[in-house]
Design brief:
alpha/beta
Length: 991
């Protein structure tokens, strides 16, 4: 709401109907409400009665409650504009608008002044005024406002704009700008083919440019068009011009324009150029970039020349930002602003000598004084700017070579360059890389175009839309514009249309704007080897890709691949996420994939993905061998065609595995697609070699989802070996998350498959997993039997680390069967194997099992020591789930040792680590031990809260511990402390 005076308000009708309070945009409401505002503005302060407003807004079919609706709109507008702006008088409404506050009024004033200046013999000033008036338009006048009155006014204003444009073009020809005017006149004549005045001006411009045959041909085309469409001949003005061209009338030749006042001492006249395009009215965000570039330009006076080069992908808003910043900084350049679109992304970029000629004419140099050579024009341009302060905007530059001749050399001048290419070879330039908008900026831009009312009720859907647009300003503008012109669409409907990745680029198209067309310009400039890399690197689904992995996709040496990838980064078609890592913008990736589908021969994409998968498997196998020396699983992998990275130590292996986890899992998932079934075996083997990810917590859910996809694909393909391995791994993942029934089902199925194909991997992994599940389900003898079976399978394969794992698990079963000495011995045997093999991570699992056995045997201090050693190993290996479970076991040992405070602290740590992983059963059992520790220190209410939550968690899994928890709750019923306002167990455990 405007809290100030009406003089702070500014209004726009020459485009969408908008209003500002100073520099702050205000919400003008629904289309009908904006229509009412527009009617009042067009009355220029005169009162509009209710019947007049109703007739203007609804015509002959007003709604039954039209008068009440008017009052509602008026009330809303008064809240936005202030009571002093919108007044009620004489049975109607009037809008008080300060002088110069309405763009239409300013345009009329400028047009009238232009007419006076032309009559006074000053065509240059007249043209400047007309250009300024035309610059106030921002698209179609009164856009988006309904009603018959609006339609009539829209037509009137469109006709007036065309008349102003014709007058300005006539002045262009009068001032010798016939060559430059041809392209604009050609476009306008095509848009308005029956407008004879435009055709007349184009004929004259062509004639004065030495293109007499084209001028005569245009007349013939016009005569035929008028006859076909209207059944008339060309008017007398056009017919006379045709005859004068046939006669080569000397009076048609370009006349030398009246010169501007020459400076003292002679020399060419100085004209202050003001060529900046209009800034967009809905510009938003980019505050840091505006400040950075504004600082560079505002301090240009103290330097020889300030050059700022703005780079980014197509559609990221480089031109919009540059023009906005240039307008903001224009006060620092009192001698003018030059602007040119260098067409750097087109097949035929602007030639520097042509641009210089245009600049020199804009600065007052007559055509006859413009030199012929590029060097001479550049020298004259620098001379013309000497001692002056001029800002030059070089938009859409192809490269540094194109813009070097266009740089002034004078102190106080500045240049702002935009390009898709980073100007790293432009000496002294301040380089700025423009990224996509933040989600908040993107939503703000979307809201400004669509309207606050539509977005407010569907904010989540709006966030989905801008997210689908990849926060790219051009894509957001297109999506918002489509929605703004389709009143029956909801934001949710648009979000659903954009959710289809295969159709998204097709949806991001409106009028002559299209995201794909913007990317096409950059793609068209690539060399063949660059274009191939651009297509192939888009195929992997990972969020980014490392240089070695990219080299595998491209089948290249890493050094050569790096040069190629960096060239794509310089072209703003690829982003460098970090040193040695690369990624695509989401929409650029979709475009690149569409080109791969259309441009590459069949089989190219699967071959590239297969190379990537082989590289990932080879490297993961090396990491596995470093982590598990002596393990036989790598000997049972499918053969690969590529070598992996030469990892040389466990730490580097672990770093690689976790850094590449998203890409590894994405590669395995892609292999499960129907068209990639030939890659199923290496995909399953990759999951086998990367199984540490399922225990990390961070990647556990993703690992489970990908493994399930491979299981389903293998089952559909009838590949029993792959299905058995994948089901065994899926069972492990489900067990890690506490889904024991599902885990047991997968392990049982895996055992059947492994036996059928005699796979040593599945035949050992699956019974070991079934034993673990039986242990959790309190079926201890069954667990021991499965562990014995797994132990035999590991020994038959010569897999000592596997043997150690089975011994550690068997120790747990023996404990539950009351055989404590045998349990300790089995755990110690497992630890000994791990130590002999030099295994690190799995030594932690062995120490974990030994700690449990020692605690049950009453050797509590030894148990705490072994569990502390296991904790250190799990921390070092980033195994968050096992770290949490070790804290849980430490809590048990400390409580048994009579140290409940330490036990409670360890249980709290376990809850924190297992908050999002491990499943309900593990969190429930931790709550049980935490409650026991809290009861031991006298916090009975907190203990009861813990057990209450534990019961809820355990009941979800039908866990055998449910009876124990109920007994604990019953035991506290008679000893509860009075309720307090202190923290509950649940809040403490999840802090």
């Amino acid at each position: 709401m405007n809290d100030g005076s009406a003089s702070d308000l500014r209004f726009a009708l020459l485009g969408p109907v908008r209003v500002w309070d100073g520099e702050n945009p205000l919400n003008a409401g629904s289309p009908q409400q904006r229509a009412m505002l527009a009617v009042l503005l067009l009355r220029r302060g005169r009162t509009a009665t209710a019947p007049e407003l109703i007739d203007a807004m609804w015509g002959e079919e007003p709604p039954s409650q039209a008068t009440a609706t008017l009052r509602t709109y008026a009330s809303r507008l008064r809240k936005v504009l202030g009571a002093s702006a919108l007044v009620t008088e004489a049975g109607g409404y009037a809008l008080r608008v300060a002088p110069g506050a309405l763009d239409l009024a300013r345009a009329e004033t400028l047009a009238a002044e232009a007419e006076k200046r032309r009559a006074a013999g000053d065509p240059r000033r007249s043209r400047e005024l007309l250009a300024e008036a035309l610059g106030l338009w921002d698209g179609e006048a009164l856009a988006g406002t309904p009603g018959p009155y609006m339609e009539g006014q829209r037509s009137r204003l469109t006709e007036w704009r065309l008349a102003l444009l014709e007058s300005r073009l006539e002045l262009d020809l009068e001032l010798g700008g016939h060559t430059e005017a041809v392209s604009e006149l050609t476009a306008l004549s095509a848009e308005y083919p029956l407008r004879e005045r435009l055709r007349s001006l184009l004929m004259l411009a062509l004639y004065r440019g030495g293109r007499q045959a084209e001028a005569l041909g245009l007349y013939a085309d016009t005569r035929r068009l008028l006859a076909d469409e209207l059944g008339v001949d060309p008017g007398p003005e056009l017919a006379e011009l045709h005859q004068r061209i046939l006669r080569a009338d000397p009076a048609l030749a370009a006349q030398e324009a009246p010169a501007a006042e020459a400076p003292e001492g002679g020399g060419p006249a100085w004209v202050r150029p003001a060529q900046l395009p209009a800034t967009v009215a809905d510009f938003t965000g980019r505050a840091a970039f505006v400040a950075e570039l504004g600082q560079q330009l505002s301090t240009a006076g103290g330097r020889v020349m300030a050059v700022s080069a703005l780079a980014g992908i197509g559609g990221v808003g480089k031109t919009t930002l540059a023009v906005h910043v240039a307008h903001e900084a224009s006060e620092h350049f009192p001698d003018g602003q030059l602007y040119v679109d260098l067409q750097g992304s087109s097949p035929r970029p602007a030639e520097p000598e042509v641009v210089l000629a245009s600049f020199l004419r804009a600065l007052g140099t007559p055509d006859s004084a413009v030199p012929d050579s590029l060097e001479d024009r550049a020298a004259l341009f620098r001379s013309a700017l000497a001692g002056r302060r001029v800002l030059t905007v070089l938009d859409n530059a192809r490269d540094a070579a194109q813009i070097r001749p266009l740089l002034p050399g004078a102190a106080g001048c500045a240049v702002l360059v935009t390009s898709r290419v980073r100007m790293v070879d432009l000496a002294g330039a301040h380089l700025v890389d423009l990224d996509v908008m933040s989600p908040e900026e993107a939503l703000d831009l979307f809201t400004r175009i669509v309207g606050e009312e539509r977005v407010a009720s569907e904010r989540e859907a709006a966030l989905d839309v801008v997210g689908a647009c990849g926060f790219l300003p051009l894509a957001i503008r297109i999506a918002a514009s489509r929605l703004a012109t389709r009143r029956t669409w909801t934001v949710s409907f648009l979000a659903r249309k954009l959710a289809d990745g295969k159709r998204r680029l097709d949806e991001l198209r409106v009028g002559d704007l299209a995201v794909a067309a913007t990317f096409e310009l950059g793609y068209g400039q690539l060399e063949p080897h660059q274009a191939r890399a651009f297509r192939l690197l888009s195929l992997p689904d990972g969020p980014d890709i490392s240089l070695p992995a990219a080299a595998a996709v491209l089948d290249m040496d890493p050094d050569d691949a790096e040069d190629l990838l960096e060239s794509l980064v310089d072209a703003s078609l690829l982003e460098s996420a970090a040193p040695g890592r690369y990624r695509y913008h989401d929409l650029v990736r979709l475009y690149a994939r569409s080109r791969a589908e259309s441009d590459d021969p069949p089989g190219t994409a699967p071959a590239a993905l297969a190379r990537l998968l082989d590289f990932c498997l080879a490297t993961a196998a090396r990491a596995y061998e470093l982590e598990r020396p002596g393990d036989r699983a790598p000997h049972h992998l499918t053969a690969v065609s590529r070598s992996g990275l030469p990892l040389d130590c466990r730490d580097s292996a672990l770093d690689w595995l976790f850094a590449e986890a998203p890409g590894l899992l994405a590669a395995a998932r892609q292999a499960a697609a129907p068209e990639n079934r030939a890659m199923l075996r290496p995909a399953a083997d990759l999951l086998l070699m990367a199984q540490d990810l399922m225990e990390s917590g961070i990647h556990a859910r993703a690992y489970e989802d990908v493994t399930r996809a491979v299981v389903e694909a293998a089952h559909a393909a009838g590949d029993r070996l792959v299905e058995g391995r994948a089901r065994s791994l899926l069972g492990q993942a489900l067990g890690m998350s506490g889904q024991f029934d599902g885990a047991d089902a997968e392990a049982r199925y895996a055992m059947t498959l492994g036996t059928a194909v005699t796979d040593p991997v599945t035949c050992s992994y699956a019974p070991n997993l079934r034993g673990i599940i039986a242990l959790y389900r309190s079926r201890y003898q069954e667990a021991a039997d499965y562990f014995d079976r797994a132990l035999s399978a590991f020994r038959d394969d010569g897999n000592e680390p596997g043997e150690a794992a089975a011994l550690s698990n068997l120790s747990r079963a023996l404990l539950s069967l009351g055989q404590k000495d045998r349990a300790v011995a089995a755990a110690e045997a497992g630890v000994a194997i791990y130590q002999r093999q030099g295994v690190t991570l799995r030594l932690g699992n062995g120490l974990y099992a030994l700690g449990i056995a020692l605690a049950e045997a009453g050797r509590l201090e030894e148990a705490v020591d072994r569990q502390s050693e296991a904790l250190a190993i799990f921390r070092a290996n980033r195994q968050r789930l096992w770290e949490g479970m070790t804290f849980y076991r430490l809590a048990h040992s400390q409580l048994a040792a009579g140290r409940p405070r330490q036990a409670a602290a360890h249980a709290e740590q376990a809850l924190k680590l297992l908050r999002d992983i491990g499943g309900d059963w593990r969190r429930g059992t931790v709550q049980v031990i935490l409650g026991r520790a809290l009861r031991a220190v006298g916090q009975h209410d907190r203990a009861r809260a813990c057990w209450t939550e534990a019961l809820e968690l355990l009941e979800r899994t039908s866990a055998p511990e449910i009876g124990e928890v109920r007994r604990l709750l019953e035991s506290t019923a008679s000893v509860r402390n009075p309720p307090t306002s202190g923290p509950t167990c649940a809040s403490s455990g999840r802090s």
